[in-house]
Amino acid sequence: MTGWRGWAGALLGVAATTVVFAFFAELRPGFVWLGAVAMAPWLAAVDRAPSARRALALGTLLSVTFTALVFGWFPGAIAAYSHAPAWLCWGVFLLIAPVLELQFLTAAWIRWYARRKVGTDSRLAWVPPVLTALVYVGTEWFTPKLFAETLGHGLYASELLRQGADVAGAPGLTLGLLFVNECFVAVGQGLVARRGLKPVPLVLALVLTLVGFGYGAVRLGQVRAAVRSAPALVVGAVQANITNIEKRAAEEGTYEVVRDILDTHYAMSDALLRSGPLDLLVWPETVYPTTFGTPKSEDGGALDEEIRAWVAERGVPLVFGTYDLEGEREFNAAMFLGPSATGELAQAAYRKTMLFPLTEWVPDAVDSPALRAWMPWTGRWKRGPGPRMVDFRLNGGRVLKVAPLICYEALFPNYVAAEVRQGAELLLTLSNDSWFSGTPAPRLHLMHAAFRSIETRTAQVRVTNSGVSAFIDPAGTWTSEMQDNQRSSVVMRVPAAERLHSLAGAWGDWLGPVALVLSVVLGVWLRRRV
């Protein structure tokens, strides 16, 4: 189909998929079914593309509309952080959208290519849909995605369907959804061509759906049976909702702001301790916004000693976000303060490795005085050594094996799986989502964290400065939730549980590279056969 009618139909397909994506991304149970048809209008539009250029144009357009509608909160947040004009942030964000969502372009091109090679050969009708799905998932694996999002994340709203993530992570759910979408595309195309209702695609869609729900039901039952009712760990989590620290420090003075932060956390923690005994206290990322243990001033040294004395006096171990210094290298860190084997106060630091580009970290290869002058808001932290489990001694001599995660690190399945494989029994996430308060971002970040618990079948304590803090069980269900932009504290009771093994926990994000290899093999086979 060519001419303006062809373009009108193609644009309608892009618009329909974009709108459905927007609803599906809200993670509401009533919208889960939209995942089965979200891609169908766009896939059908690509099938009608008369040229590779048209197919790539449809992929590019969807990458832009998807980015604008689903992540439209991001440019405003960056503008507020960097003080750059909003129009500039929007312009750059949409300009790089085809790179961030490259899977739409590669899937569109390979689909057009496969359709052209297969032609009217009904024996090979399965090749374009399968190749499209494999290239889509494979591309997402190697694309530098800021938010590590994928279509399968929308299935979080279904307690049963999300359990499938312990096989191949959220990308595995994406692959299943793409195949179901292909079934509905085939049915729709048959009806439009007046060839009647095709039963095979409908049966296949039904089978895939039943497999997803059936596996989820079985696996959920196993998880519930493995979790005991008695708590193995009692954690006090503090979400003080103290934000705009840099602005306040410029106006009130750094010491005064730090003083207010500490006094608030002391008071909220003492209130938790009065409610009952705790095994552990947790404060969020960078709650102590200076170096700990290597003070930069006399006041800083005094505050360090004050925190140590407070922990020793209360007799409860504390984990909190701070900075760690080694020579001239500064790290975003989680500090562990607790009893040692000799009874004295011991200190251990975990250094954040996965840093958000530019705002937290600038690669040495591009770092320069000119860049810093042009973008003075760029971060100066250095990357930590990688996934690391921390053995943290609690009162009574018990050693808790913790997989620490700081903010952005919760988005990376391989990173989390590597920590759990070291023997961790608890995921402990400290985060600062205040830059995105009032947007969908805090809840989306929580959803990502929940997938890490599903994939590794490991409970998680997540504490943020402004929300959303929560306890996440091995089935990915969050409880003890403290809402966005709320000052609150809560006691999280982590139940004892038998270790359940999973493929995603053992192999991490394995599906992406496998899909990429299979797509290359299938593509070469198609080229030689046809």
Which features does this protein show?
530 residues; alpha/beta; Nitrilase/N-carbamoyl-D-aminoacid amidohydrolase; six-stranded mixed sheet; 18 helices; 12 strands; globular; acyltransferase; LNT_N; transferase; C-N_Hydrolase; transmembrane helix
Question: Oligomerization state of this entry?
Answer: single chain
> Looking across the biggest beta sheet, what order are the strands in?
5-4-3-2-1-12
Report the average pLDDT across residues.
93
CATH homolog superfamily of the largest domain:
Carbon-nitrogen hydrolase
Residue stretches low in confidence (pLDDT < 50, at least 5 long) are none
Share of helical residues: 40-55%
Broad CATH class of the largest domain: Alpha Beta
Tally of domains: 2
Structural category is alpha/beta
- Total of DSSP H or I helical runs spanning 4+ residues: 18
One letter per element, helices H and strands E, the order comes to HHHHHHHHHHEHHEHEEEHEEHEHEEEEHH
Shape: globular
- Characterize the main sheet: 6 strands, mixed
Description of the molecule:
- Its EC number is 2.3.1.269.
- The protein is α/β, with parallel strands linked by helices and 530 residues long.
- It folds into 2 domains: 4-225 and 521-529; 231-496, 4-Layer Sandwich (Nitrilase/N-carbamoyl-D-aminoacid amidohydrolase).
- The chain is built from 18 helices and 12 strands.
- The protein has helices spanning 3-24, 40-47, 52-70, 73-82, 86-95, 97-100, 102-118, 127-142, 165-192, 199-226, 245-252, 254-275, 298-314, 369-374, 413-421, 441-456, 503-507, 511-529, and strands at residues 227-239, 280-282, 318-326, 329-339, 345-351, 390-393, 399-406, 426-431, 460-464, 469-472, 478-482, 488-497.
- Strands 5-4-3-2-1-12 form a 6-stranded mixed β-sheet. The chain has a 6-stranded mixed β-sheet with strand order 6-7-8-9-10-11, covered by helices on one side.
- A hairpin with a 5-residue loop joins strand 4 (329-339) and strand 5.
- Helix 8 crosses helix 18.
- The longest helix is centred in the middle third of the chain and has 28 residues, at 165-192.
- The two termini are 24 Å apart.
